[in-house]
Amino acid sequence: MKSLHTDTAVTIAQVSDDAWRSALAENTRRFHVVAAWAAIIFDPIFAITDYFNIPESWQLLLYTRLSVSLISLITLFAQKRYQFPAYWIVVVPFMLISLQNAFTFSLIGSEDLLGHNLNYMALLIGAGMFLAWDWQFSVGVLTLSAIATAIFIQLNPAITVDAFFVKGGLLLMSVAAFMFILIKTRYNLTVKEIKARLALQISNEEIQSQNEEISAQAEEIRGINENLEQIVNARTKELEMKNKALQEYAFINAHKLRRPVASILGLVNIASKIDLPEEERSIIFHLEKSTLELDEIVASITKTIEKADV
After folding, report:
1. Looking at per-residue confidence, does 242 or 143 come out higher?
2. The pTM is what?
3. CB 153 within 8 A of CB 159
4. Rg (Cα) of the chain, in Å, rounded?
5. Which domain holds residue 245?
């Protein structure tokens, strides 16, 4: 198990930053596009609530909302054309809507604080559900929103800081912290999942490469075996031909060569019974001796060939 964990860690370490960041951008872009379109479409629609809650400023807020939607729409199409990082299509609308909400604090009365804080919370919860970016973006947007909110609250004499916190401000800060944690957690889990998937892909490619190498080696061995079989067959045929030649030679030894030897021995035997001078008897004796030696040699060769054939 330890070895498997180590191998997995090594494989994940092989995943380059460019690879997982590219996969992350592709994986999260569809969620960011949905979030961007939701902001573009629904933010102007909420001007209806401004008409009833802030009737004296609803037109100003409508123009503000339309401007936010227009800038967000331009960002969305610009990203598709110029291929800059996809998270900007949600960073821009989220930041602008946050500033828009902060600006609204300068227009409302104390009685509208709770409702507006609840609307702000809805924005943060929605962001937490859809966004997946590095934690620095959350810190940047939330910090900018907090500063803008503080400034616009100070500019509005109708509300106080105490009233802000009592009527939902503390809860708003808690929701902002929750949004930060939620986005950071989703981002980290998404990155881990992407790295694991890419690592698995690398492992599969390595396994496939090894399988191809093994197949090539098997094919090479198969070729060697086929060639070896051809060599063995050729050698077998050669041995069969030599064996056949030896058999023919053994037949010659056993029949054709020994027959004249036997004839010579027969003639020598007849000559030995004739009364001949001593010199001629000596010649016949040596002839008989040489013929017997030749007969033994032929018999020995025949016997050796017969043993080899067996």
Report:
1. 143
2. 0.64
3. yes
4. 52
5. 240-309
